[in-house]
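> example.struct
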């Protein structure tokens, strides 16, 4: 049992400790306040002047390539493209400023490989298109081609002006993964555009995914995919998954359906 003297000593000790804590808290908050007010007294203190963004001359019209774009196709030739199956020169048909799918020669892809980029590409379903569902003006933009055939991540191209199909396979979809937010497609015969921001997936040494692929897509200037995180490569059958890859070509699909082939034009990319 403690004596009265001992008890008052403990009380005083506690009291002093409380006082110290209180004093310390006061000093700390005063110094934080003073640091805050010292740090932000003038507008100049929160202005950043470097690094200065590189000057880029925008295209003359919306959709025209800016000065720092890599031109993948502007009507002159298919020099930037190869046939996917054997890496031979691409054999799709170039006429005027457009290229038209040659289904007999299969998918084509860029010679160059990319990681993250901004892409502009225009496509036109022919006015005389026939067929239904997935067999009506089917093509696709593979945002990274990770192998032969349809291996990769497909942004669907299809006539969906008045053509019903599964919604995760319509124009503006990330094939069988993401339904477009809206359907801003135009009728067959009209030129349509995709503007895409692609963030490539990043892999660990052991092949596991460090960060997934992400994509934002505007179709005819209207947002249809808003930073969507892919769950893997786009597959016709089965559950998507990732396999490790690096920088990859961009691939265009020659779909095997019997409908009339569609055309592309004005394709450019800006690496990010
Ligand atoms: Mg397709």
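> example.seq
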């Amino acid at each position: 049992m403690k004596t009265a003297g001992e008890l008052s000593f403990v009380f005083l000790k506690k009291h002093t400790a409380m006082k110290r804590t209180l004093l310390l808290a006061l000093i700390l908050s005063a110094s934080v306040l003073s640091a805050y007010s010292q740090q932000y007294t003038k507008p100049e203190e929160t202005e950043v002047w470097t690094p200065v963004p590189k000057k880029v001359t925008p295209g003359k019209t919306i959709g025209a390539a800016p000065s720092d774009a890599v031109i993948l196709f502007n009507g002159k030739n298919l020099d930037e493209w190869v046939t996917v199956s054997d890496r031979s020169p691409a054999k799709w048909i170039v006429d005027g400023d457009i290229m038209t799918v040659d289904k007999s020669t299969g998918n084509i892809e860029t010679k160059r490989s990319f990681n993250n980029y901004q892409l502009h590409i225009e496509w036109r379903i022919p006015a005389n298109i026939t067929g239904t569902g997935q067999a009506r003006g089917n093509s696709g933009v593979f945002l990274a081609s990770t192998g032969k055939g349809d291996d990769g991540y497909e942004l669907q191209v299809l006539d969906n002006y008045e053509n019903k199909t599964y919604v995760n396979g319509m124009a503006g979809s990330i094939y069988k993964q993401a339904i477009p937010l809206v359907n801003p497609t135009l009728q067959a015969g009209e030129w349509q555009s995709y503007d895409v921001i692609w963030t490539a997936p990043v892999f660990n040494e052991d092949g596991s995914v460090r960060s997934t692929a992400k994509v934002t897509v505007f179709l005819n200037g209207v947002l249809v995919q808003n930073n969507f995180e892919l769950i893997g490569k786009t597959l016709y059958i089965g559950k998507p998954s990732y396999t490790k890859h690096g920088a990859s070509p961009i691939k265009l699909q020659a779909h095997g359906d019997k409908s009339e082939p569609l055309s592309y034009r004005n394709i450019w990319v800006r690496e990010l």
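> remarks
The CA atoms of residues 169 and 175 lie 5 Å apart.
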